Amino acid sequence: MGTAQLAAVPEPKYWHLRTVLLRAIDSEFATGQVIPNERELSARFGVARATLRQALDQLELEGRLVRRRGIGTLVAAPRVGVPVSRREEGEAWQPVDCVTAPAADKLAGALGVPAGELVHTVRRVRVEQGQTVATESLHVPDRSLEQVPEIRLSGAALTGEEQARAVLRRLERLTMDGESRAVELGVAEAEEAALLQRPPGTPVLVVTTQFAAGGRLAALAVSTYRADTCRLTFGETGLVEVRPAAPVRTAS
Amino acid sequence: MGTAQLAAVPEPKYWHLRTVLLRAIDSEFATGQVIPNERELSARFGVARATLRQALDQLELEGRLVRRRGIGTLVAAPRVGVPVSRREEGEAWQPVDCVTAPAADKLAGALGVPAGELVHTVRRVRVEQGQTVATESLHVPDRSLEQVPEIRLSGAALTGEEQARAVLRRLERLTMDGESRAVELGVAEAEEAALLQRPPGTPVLVVTTQFAAGGRLAALAVSTYRADTCRLTFGETGLVEVRPAAPVRTAS
DNA sequence: GAGTGGTCTAGACCACCTC
DNA sequence: AGGTGGTCTAGACCACTCG
């Protein structure tokens, strides 16, 4: 008779380890507390250090652990809820600099303008609770600002940050029809990783926002949020205070 | 792909490898094409297989590669845009089953009802282009449906799927005030991973949706989307087509 | 059976931090 | 100096897929 053996295969050691460690940090450790070091844990569980690290990698991806070189591995704080919308974001984002240059092919295609068109790219960072949680490149074709009077402060050369503020102020005067967003998983490359104070390869949530004005694409923002510390929130804020602290698994 | 030199420098080998491989799959390989196997690549680049795998891990996390045991490593197709909203989702989700049980502490807390309250949990999967891209647990406290007449089809016992459809139909008749969403990174555990046809530990985008009716939380949905293949889209759909990406070719 | 990716080991050295 | 996590090696065996 057909004996269907589905669970005949034992689960990998690193996955079992993850489960054990997850229970441990949920019950025996407090946020911010340092857990035993990797060499001790691997000895205690009787596995190679690489195997233990595989389990820690998982928990770090889930935002449950933070590893600090030279320090140790800490239990992570719950993720911060970060509202994603143009409202009430004014204070959250800090302009860093701005470059104005002809658009490369790829960027021009994404903006729907001819290659070589002049585009302002504003770089901003978002700081939440004293920590940089996101960086953004906001691309604004110069033609989008044609109707908006230019802002001239002085004859002196503007710093990058001043240029950024000038572009943002002009953009604010545009009446926007709406926004369209996409969210996907990515990794931070060198420059972004540095701004986020994380090593290259750090997982990030990439939010692409299209701003429409006059039925056309007026600007494009590419924001990258630290996936380990951020929970992006959308829609009516403060609808219900309830927050599912941990992912809710079915209670069968 | 060419045998590139590894610059002996500050950045880790695996990160440099990732860059080299990324350029290669962008320029020399088509979607769906199998790249050389790990042992050959590690030999060609003069690194240990584990190091090469670290680079492939990154590219897989970015959704650029797909690894299939026994087959090889393939260049992934661009991510699918998946609209996230209650509109036009009717067809996308397929009910699987439904369990009705008293809420455990954690779930009750998330729903804002007393522990032990009767809660319907509808399990659904979302199929896009023939592939399961998401699973969802939709939690509906029975008290939310009090005002909606129960649907009685027969005296016979209903299958899980029939129960699910019944709950969904009743839920549809509620007038909703709005929805509030959060998106964060997670990993799929055993059951979810199986539904998504992926191994445990697979990165997923977890979307938590709160449905409000009458100023109260009427239902809570926890949806997990495959992070490797999905790009979640919000807001006005079809505003402008987003997708800078790279030239897409397909292997025959 | 041959080839693939997945897991695991037991080391080694490095970069970073604190004392 | 001593401890931590980060990187890297050179193997080994396993699970899966295919011809």
Summarize the structure.
The structure is a homodimer of 252-residue chains. Chain A has 252 residues and is an alpha+beta fold.
Verbal overview:
Two copies of one chain form a homodimer. Chain A is of the alpha+beta class and 252 residues long. Chain A has two domains: 13-75, Winged helix-like DNA-binding domain superfamily/Winged helix DNA-binding domain (Arc Repressor Mutant, subunit A), CATH 1.10.10; 80-242, Chorismate lyase-like (Chorismate lyase). Helices cover 25% and strands 33% of the residues of chain A. Chain A is built from six helices and eleven strands. Chain A has helices at 13-27, 38-45, 49-61, 105-111, 160-172, 190-195, and strands spanning 34-35, 65-68, 72-75, 80-83, 93-102, 118-128, 131-141, 178-187, 203-213, 216-226, 230-235. In chain A, β9 and β10 form a beta hairpin. In chain A, 31% of the residues are buried. Mean pLDDT of chain A is 86; it is low at 1-8 and 242-252. Chains A and B meet through α3, α4, β8, β9 and β11 of A and α3, α4, β6, β8 and β9 of B. β8 of chain A pairs antiparallel with β11 (230-235) of chain B. Chain A binds a DNA duplex (19 and 19 nucleotides) through α3.
